[in-house]
């Protein structure tokens, strides 16, 4: 566990979808220093996970002020290839949710930097989901997590990757409730889930 109570080991799936958020250290989009995941079950139960990463680049004061992560915080943490390698399989066989498209871009950039494969999962942007559910927020603070937190009464610590992943997952679930319909593409892929479970038993 960490200060927000996120898991530090991956839960057992399969899941309906996984929300993902990253925090970055400095000037490069791929300088990821934290990955947070929120695993959402078929019934809407949520489990959050977060892991620190040594970005192997300097931390900018602005970024550290935002998320509280510094070179000291990540001392002894794994590098991106190690951490992402351990997450690859579970991420690659689930639909993913991100708030905006920054997280996917950051992962793609980090994979390119280290010459490792990027996941091929389907991504859903919860900003677009929120725009459909709450169009009245356009021009009234917008659909960023900070304004949605206020509008929807969400409780989370902004700029912690695990907390922001949980917020993005909550936005999707609340939007589905508001619109009275589930996003049909966010579902457990039985075939992929079976393959994932099968591999984990080896």
Short description:
The chain is an alpha/beta fold. The chain has helices at residues 61-67, 80-92, 102-114, 126-133, 145-152, 161-179, 190-200, and strands spanning 17-24, 32-40, 46-52, 96-98, 123-125.
Corresponding CATH architecture: 2-Layer Sandwich
The oligomeric status of these chains comes to: single chain
Distance between the termini: 27 Å
| CATH homologous superfamily (4th level) name | Ribonuclease H-like superfamily/Ribonuclease H
Structure in words:
With 202 residues, this protein is an alpha/beta fold. The chain has a single domain, classed as Nucleotidyltransferase, domain 5 (2-Layer Sandwich), CATH 3.30.420.10. 39% of the residues lie in helices and 15% in strands. The chain has a five-stranded mixed sheet. Strand 1 and strand 2 form a beta hairpin. Helix 4 runs parallel beside helix 6. The protein is globular and about 45 Å long. The two termini are 27 Å apart. The C terminus is likely disordered.
Blueprint of the fold:
Blueprint: E1 17-24, E2 32-40, E3 46-52, H1 61-67, H2 80-92, E4 96-98, H3 102-114, E5 123-125, H4 126-133, H5 145-152, H6 161-179, H7 190-200
Parallel strand pairs: 1-4, 4-5
Antiparallel strand pairs: 1-2, 2-3
Helix pairs in contact: 4-6
